[in-house]
Amino acid sequence: MRRIAVINQKGGVGKTTTTANLGAALAAKGVRVLLIDLDPQAHLTLHFGTEVETDQPTIYELLTDSKAVNDVAVKVRENLALVPSHIDLAAAETELATEVGREVILRNAVDEVEGDHDVLLIDCPPSLGVLTINALSAATEVLIPLQAHFFALQGLGKLFDTVRLVRQRINPRLTVAGVVLCMHDSATKLSGEVVDDLCRFLEVARGTDAPWADAILYKTYIRRNIKLAEATSYGQTVFDYAPDSNGALDYAAFADEFHPTAVAPPVDARSAENTDSRSGKVEAAPPDPTRSNGPSVAPSRDSRDRAATASSGIAPKSDVGRTPADHAASADSAAETAPVAPTAPCAVLSPEGVTVNRQSVATDPVDAPIAAAVSDALTENVSGASPPCAAASSPAVPASPPSAATIGSDSVVDVTPRDRVADAV
Description:
Helix 1 packs across helix 12. The chain has two domains: 2-272, P-loop containing nucleotide triphosphate hydrolases (Rossmann fold), CATH 3.40.50.300; 346-424, no CATH class. It has helices at 15-28, 43-47, 59-64, 69-72, 92-95, 105-111, 130-138, 150-169, 189-204, 226-233, 238-241, 246-258, 269-272, 301-312, 324-337, 368-380, 417-424, and strands at residues 2-6, 33-37, 74-77, 80-83, 119-123, 141-146, 175-181, 216-217, 346-350, 353-357. The protein is of the alpha/beta class. It contains 17 helices and ten strands. Strands 3-4-2-5-1-6-7-8 form an eight-stranded mixed sheet, sandwiched between helices. A two-stranded antiparallel ribbon has the order 9-10. It is globular.
């Protein structure tokens, strides 16, 4: 059984959300998961909509009255059991202050159910007291949810020191599995700087005897998503509340990366198709070479024959006995029936400057003024990078706004090449 303590002494970084949704994702994959709510706030218990009755045993009775795990755990989903918490747990640290061996009470209780579950996830409180020490004693791995902010990174060093002390004195098997970024916004400069600092810190520890020597920064990060917050108010996981949301996609992908031994949980195929789990961008399907964006026109017999000739080098039978005049007549007929797509001139960057390929200008009388104006504008405006080729049917470039000096005056503003394009349109 994998024993993971989800820990960070800083509050509000996503410990409970990660524990609940990672556990639900693993359970949906067929993994037998046991969750332990070790936080007196009992947020993990509320996350699953579990109502603790007055006489119902909780993690408090497990630590203070030697209750067994199977006597306390409740089934909340298929393959998912939860040891609930209660506000009474806040008094446990005081009651255990004089207890001998208080740091290993939870470990002894978990040892009794070693073969009943595949994964144990412990939601730790935002502190480094007796409850957190119990979690680190019972676990063999540490998972650290982290928000890419300065204060969260500063507290990470103190957390690593605590893990080192517990490993030296209580639990020699304890290691840091890795760090998962929660509520992450990769577009901000601060997030990038924090991630770079964290990667350098972990890289320096490679090959040492530190508990985090093999720790990784997981490739899958959890984006900020309001559905994750809304799901808790309904007592549901994000997979139950919004299975097609970014939060569901991110935690499903993280479950595959964190414990990749089972089948992925069911997610709405329409939203998951061609979706990058990290960026959330829906990628377009690759173009079909057999289809065209323009009108569907069946190739003429001459075009098929010419294609066969180019590929094989052998003249087709249809060319036998045909004269050059016949070929010219066929070419004229094909030119009359084939649709002509008006295209704008393409600006090409060369050592001599920006030149315009006027051969691509459409000859349609209706579009000729537009094409000529675009051609002149590209020829005169030779500074800067070359613009991409575009169809003449694309939206016209908007005219440049007048300068502040000419607003409200009767003077005539000089017409720029960009203005002539808009006037021609």
